[in-house]
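Two records follow; treat each independently.
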Amino acid sequence: MSTNENWGQCPACNAPVMIDPKSGKKEACGQCTSKKSSTAGWLGIWFILLVVLGGVTALYFSIRTLLFVEE
């Protein structure tokens, strides 16, 4: 059985990965890479939550100002 020289194994979990033909390096697979960036995922979730809450707050005060205008 012949193996393809373009394929190798992930250095972390031994999953099959492509070998970069220019550098000859094996990169970590998508599963191992996603485990490393869990902090970035949480930061993204908090950022989205902050933007949504800011928008809701701005909308609330805008509607409140328009409805309760004192003359």
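The next record belongs to a different protein.
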Amino acid sequence: MTEVLGQWRCSFTGKVILLCYKRIAFQKAAEEVKHLTTVPTDEEMLAIYSLYKQATVGDVNTERPGMLDFKGKAKWDAWSKLKGTSKEEAMKLYIAKVEEMKVIYGMAE
């Protein structure tokens, strides 16, 4: 059986159903993080960015930005630290981090 949930097409057989629901939870978390009542710290934002990139792209696949691009280097370095983490594990960690931030900062109505 195949069903479209959000932007994901899910085939409901064995392990696939679990991964599909993880992707839906990941997509929901990616939307929710935009509606926190307070902007998270730079460190938290780097964690969210790097986990999102690892979950959606995988291992860093670009050159490290130049020496004057401080923000770009910080983002690249955070993502690079996750090298070898599976997309599925990064999704799980991303969802957990967003849930933690929702408790700390609350959600805008």
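Discussion point: DSSP finds four helices and two strands in the chain. How would you locate this feature using only the token line?
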